[in-house]
Specification:
By secondary structure, the protein is α+β, with helices and mostly antiparallel strands. The protein has seven helices and six strands, in the order ααβββαβααββαα. The strands form two sheets. The protein has a four-stranded mixed sheet. A two-stranded antiparallel ribbon has the order 5-6.
Length: 167
């Protein structure tokens, strides 16, 4: 069961606890540093990202297949993996994320990790405020909103639809 409200609340608690500045696009490296999670890039990864917990010292590492020319996508991938970290990986030796969000074969964990990522990168309050600022003749300008949050246009549209602020 996917509880979107619960995830949203959970993410805002995490942001607050970590003292993350939400007045600008979330500094994802800062989030990782505060959680003591290492980030690695691996071009040979057969999927977009994975998260692993080493059993010997309990250290956590996120590996993503970087798209060097797409920072927004990298950010979403990292945030998605953080979703698995907080929602699904606890108490497990390792968690390999093989079904990524672009895959149509959604399962609840993937859906939840995406929801977590959307909430992390586009907190509801800030998102609503940004939409207000970008309404022109009853049309919402998507691009400046996407830039403000450092996410893709599609991620912005999905978020706006879910929050019922877009058509
Ligand atoms: Zn996933």
């Amino acid at each position: 069961m996917v509880n979107r409200e619960g995830i949203s609340k959970f993410v805002s608690e995490i942001l607050e606890k970590l003292g993350i500045d939400t007045s600008q696009s979330i500094n994802i490296s800062d989030v990782l540093r505060k959680l003591d999670i290492e980030l690695k890039y691996d071009e040979s990864l057969p999927y977009d990202g994975k998260i692993e917990k080493k059993s010997d010292d309990d250290s956590v590492c996120i590996t993503i297949k970087s798209s060097s020319n797409n920072e927004a996508r990298n950010r979403f991938t990292i945030a998605h993996e953080l979703g698995h970290y907080f929602l699904h990986a606890r108490g497990k030796e390792n968690f390999t994320d093989s079904v990524f969000y672009r895959n149509l074969d959604y399962n609840d964990e993937e859906f939840e990790a995406n929801e977590f990522a959307a909430c992390l990168l586009m907190p509801e309050k800030q998102f609503r405020e940004e939409v207000e600022k970008n309404v022109e003749e009853s049309e919402v300008k998507i691009e400046p909103i996407a830039q403000r949050f450092g996410v893709s246009l599609q991620a912005t549209i999905n978020r706006g639809r879910f929050l019922n602020v877009f058509e």
